[in-house]
């Protein structure tokens, strides 16, 4: 299409049909007209010459001038047309990106090797793996334009941010792809079918001898987009989780998705009704002998709603004590200004 036709900012500067025709590779005017008719209404709309003249020359219109009867009709992109044009320009449907491995600063969440973790891109999918244990940690798709507009060293961080926002948007009930209504639920999975971040363990169900794997599953009711991840990754924006990390000197926003899984353990407490206990371990405790300490338990229902949380560590208790001592009057707090002569609830002197 010609440069006169808007492709991005939505401004109305429609191009004449003849200009658009000349900008295409179609051999005949009849052939072009056929293709244009297929796009009309859905991706482009016809703007009568009189309307285009009125929009383009308000001064002339105020003076009573009219459009030339021989001036051709013009066309402009609809919202859907602009979206398609932007997607094509960004390479969404045409570009395939492959890159060499990029070393990551994080320890491998599987074997703990401090130097083996790397990210490789193949056909627009960023795969994080470890050279030391020769295992993949996760694989996440990323738009081609995300690779094209960044140096390779900056891509892993962008991939992490992109997918954190996708998970958060799905968890909020909004599809990140089309804006449609999205729902989420806990679903059981077999060991071979788990789709998530390596390092997130699932403990055995309380009523069985076999481990019951679970994950969070989101789906859009409009475009059918789906996302599956460990239950714990759907909790990272919860205030209690953010606070627990913060109390231990860790900004959870700075923890990459491929490393945060080692902080969590998930246990199915019940399937009727569903209840998953996601336990956060001390993210700063690297003692291999004593084992990491549990600092927070989050109880998650079937629809991935956090129904309750429980702080399990001294830092959480200290924070709670500090909140209780901040001077706020609570139901069981003593009023410092009260005297022995203050009336009791029944109106008689105490």
Notable traits:
four-stranded antiparallel β-sheet; alpha+beta; 10 helices; single chain; 350 residues; five-stranded mixed β-sheet; disordered N terminus; disordered C terminus; elongated; DUF7347
Q: Can you summarize this structure?
A:
By secondary structure, this protein is of the alpha+beta class. It has ten helices and 15 strands. The strands form four sheets. The protein has a five-stranded mixed β-sheet. A four-stranded antiparallel β-sheet has the order 4-5-6-7, with helices on one face.
Question: What would you note in describing this structure?
Answer:
The chain is α+β, with helices and mostly antiparallel strands and 350 residues long. It has a domain at 15-89. The chain has ten helices and 15 strands. The protein has helices spanning 17-22, 29-39, 49-56, 58-62, 79-89, 144-148, 155-171, 239-247, 257-260, 314-324; strands spanning 15-16, 44-47, 74-77, 99-103, 117-122, 125-130, 135-141, 182-189, 201-203, 213-220, 226-229, 264-271, 274-281, 294-301, 306-311. The strands form four sheets. Strands 9-12-13-14-15 form a five-stranded mixed beta sheet. A hairpin with a 2-residue loop joins strand 12 and strand 13. The longest helix has 17 residues, at 155-171. Residues 332-344 have a biased composition (Acidic residues). This is ArsR family transcriptional regulator. Pfam families: DUF7347, DUF7351.
């Amino acid at each position: 299409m010609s440069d006169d036709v808007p492709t991005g900012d939505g401004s109305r500067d429609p191009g004449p049909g003849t200009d658009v025709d000349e900008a295409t590779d179609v051999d005949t005017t009849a052939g072009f007209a056929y293709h244009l008719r297929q796009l009309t209404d859905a991706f482009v709309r016809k703007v009568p010459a009189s309307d285009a003249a009125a929009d383009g020359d308000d001064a002339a219109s105020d003076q009573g001038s009219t459009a030339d009867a021989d001036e051709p009709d013009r066309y402009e992109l609809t919202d859907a047309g602009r979206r398609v044009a932007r997607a094509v320009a960004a390479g969404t449907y045409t570009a395939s990106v492959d890159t060499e491995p990029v070393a990551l600063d994080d320890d491998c969440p599987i074997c703990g090797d401090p130097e083996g973790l790397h990210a490789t891109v193949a056909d627009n999918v960023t795969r994080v793996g470890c050279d030391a244990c020769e295992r993949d940690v996760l694989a996440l798709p990323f738009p081609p334009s995300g690779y094209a507009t960044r140096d390779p060293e900056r891509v892993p961080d962008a991939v992490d941010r992109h997918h954190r926002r996708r998970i958060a948007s799905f968890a909020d009930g909004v599809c990140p792809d089309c804006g449609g209504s999205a729902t989420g639920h806990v679903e059981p999975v077999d060991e071979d079918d788990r789709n998530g971040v390596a390092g997130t363990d699932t403990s055995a169900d309380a009523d069985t001898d076999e481990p019951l794997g679970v994950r969070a599953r989101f789906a859009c009711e409009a475009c059918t987009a789906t996302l599956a991840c460990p239950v714990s990754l759907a909790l990272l924006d919860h205030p209690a989780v953010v606070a627990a990390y913060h109390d231990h000197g860790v900004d959870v926003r700075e923890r990459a998705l491929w490393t945060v899984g080692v902080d969590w353990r998930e246990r199915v407490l019940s399937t009727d009704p569903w209840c998953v206990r996601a336990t956060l371990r001390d993210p700063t405790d690297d003692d291999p002998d004593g084992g990491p300490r549990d600092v927070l338990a989050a109880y998650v229902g079937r629809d991935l709603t956090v129904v309750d949380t429980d702080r399990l560590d001294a830092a959480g208790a200290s924070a709670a004590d500090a909140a209780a001592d901040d001077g706020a009057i609570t139901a069981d707090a003593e009023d410092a200004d009260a005297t022995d002569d203050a009336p009791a609830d029944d109106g008689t002197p105490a």
